[in-house]
Amino acid sequence: MLFRGIQRQLVPDEEGVYLIHDLRGVLYVGRSTNLQRRFDEHRLRPSNPYLIVALNHPFGEMRFSWIRTAVPDETDQLETGLIAWLQPACNRLTPKS
Description:
By secondary structure, the protein is of the alpha+beta class. It has three helices and three strands, in the order E-E-H-H-E-H. It has a single domain, classed as GIY-YIG endonuclease.
């Protein structure tokens, strides 16, 4: 099972930014209005081809972490900032500075 160490019930059904990571570091940063639903989508039917490869070939335990946010503007800024800072390998597009 992907995302060992976390149970679906622990993921909130609230808005936020999430990170998918293993021992290589952060592989993907995304945002969702419902983190629990997005967790299920990544777990059951990922669509990003780069992320599919990473999920099928983890290095150590694959993790799903999140930061809850209160408003969409905060969510957008946090996601953009994390992608620019971390430059995750599986994000399709990275913001231009």
